[in-house]
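Form P-L/3: holo structure prediction, ligand 2-phosphoglycolic acid.
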Amino acid sequence: MRKPVIAGNWKMYKLIGDAVSTALALRPLVSNANHCEIVIAPPFTALKVVADRLEGSNIQVAGQDCATETKHGAHTGEIAANMLLDAGATHVIIGHSERRQHYCESDTFVQRKIQAAVATGLTAIMCVGESLAQREAGTAESVVKGQLNGGLRGLTATDLNRIMIAYEPVWAIGTGRTATPDQAQEMHSFVRGIFNEKFGGEASERLRILYGGSVKPDNIASLMTAPDIDGALVGGASLDAESFAGIVHYNG
Ligand code: PGA
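OUTPUT (holo model):
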């Protein structure tokens, strides 16, 4: 049985005070949720204080990105994976479509970041997903396959314990237009199939594949009925503690 994961991506929202009050409001709302793992990704500036305030809770903390380099050095503006770990993070989101689209992140970059994350002991939440034009052109699967092949290059079977995939179709992110459970299931099963080919049946059965793109309290339950959807990566609806708690409690 794969334990579901509900992760919140706060993106470039929340000053420190708001981040702390949201985290503290969330903590009691989800304290009895044992059916899933809960992760939130505050902006870097709030990561340490949020992690400190959540210590001893069932909420884990993620970075939203990390550097390709693991050794400290002259990399202005970058945050290394071990700095995230040092600040209290257990996870890191890598290759989010906003980084791929607006910050020119290539599959090679994503691959190096994943290597850096897993070598450091973080769990990487690797994002993949096609644009609307690619879906309409019928190339969604080949795009996702290319992203997986590029990003996962060089990983060993042991590294896979520290990898989750988030399938986030770009056309569903922040648009209010969610993929239907059938559309998501189809791609998730395709992704699991690729893992099966690359790493074997056991690794592919263990892999958690999250869906992301306009997940809300009122659509999570139907998404979670799909057999290959193992959780969600939530943007907008994770910014409010009650709404995110509503998603965590998708099972009623
Ligand atoms: P959304 O964002 O839930 O606001 O669509 C999801 C994401 O970008 O991870």
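COMMENT: The chain has one domain: 5-70+77-248.
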